[in-house]
């Protein structure tokens, strides 16, 4: 009986050590990413990483990477490739997460290009959910970028007037209330 209890204790300790080593060695933690890898990354827990800028006394700028409250659909441990950043018209120095870029027709054309839309699922998922938060269906917006209705779709985004809460706002984010973004998108 005593050896059985000892076996349980040893098994529990071994399991705890395995979990600690696994979390230490593997996985992406937003707080550990630098300025050049933070924006558009997804942590091992599935939360999106955001780059933040802080101005210290004397005007010195300091950048930190944090976990947002926005979760990626079916994606973990992801640092976006430089090729996708370029193909989608993004910048590694992007601060926070915002739907504002969807108002720029040049950005929307790059986001909706076949290189980005069909080759960069992380970025498309992010902007799909951001557009949905503004009441816009991204595939419709992408289709409109090639048609006359592009300005009307942009006007709908501008007129929504409901900003998405930031990671420190404490407000719940409802971006995932629209279901799996990637399943809803058909190739353009």
UniProtKB/TrEMBL annotation:
The keyword Manganese does not apply. Coiled coil: none annotated. Keywords: Signal. It comes from the Eukaryota. The keyword Signal applies. Residues 1-26 form the signal peptide. InterPro entries: PAR1 (IPR009489). PANTHER family: PAR1 PROTEIN (PTHR33649:SF2). This is PAR1 protein. It comes from Cinnamomum micranthum f. kanehirae.
């Amino acid at each position: 009986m005593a050896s059985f209890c000892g076996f349980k204790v040893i098994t529990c300790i071994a399991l705890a050590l395995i979990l600690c080593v696994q979390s230490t060695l593997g996985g992406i933690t937003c707080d550990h990413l630098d300025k050049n890898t933070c924006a558009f990354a997804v942590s091992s827990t599935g939360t999106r990483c955001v780059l933040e800028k802080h101005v210290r006394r004397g005007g010195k700028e300091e950048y930190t990477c944090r976990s947002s409250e926005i979760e990626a659909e079916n994606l973990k441990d992801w640092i976006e490739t430089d090729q996708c950043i370029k193909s989608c018209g993004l910048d590694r120095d992007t601060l926070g997460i915002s739907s504002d870029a969807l108002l720029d027709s040049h950005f929307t054309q790059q986001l909706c290009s076949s290189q980005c839309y069909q080759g960069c699922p992380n970025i498309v998922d992010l902007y799909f959910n951001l557009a949905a938060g503004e009441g816009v269906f991204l595939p419709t917006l992408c289709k409109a970028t090639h048609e006359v209705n592009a300005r009307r779709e942009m006007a709908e985004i501008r007129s929504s007037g409901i900003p998405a809460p930031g990671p420190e706002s404490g407000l719940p984010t409802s971006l995932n209330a629209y279901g799996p973004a990637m399943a809803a998108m058909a190739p353009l």
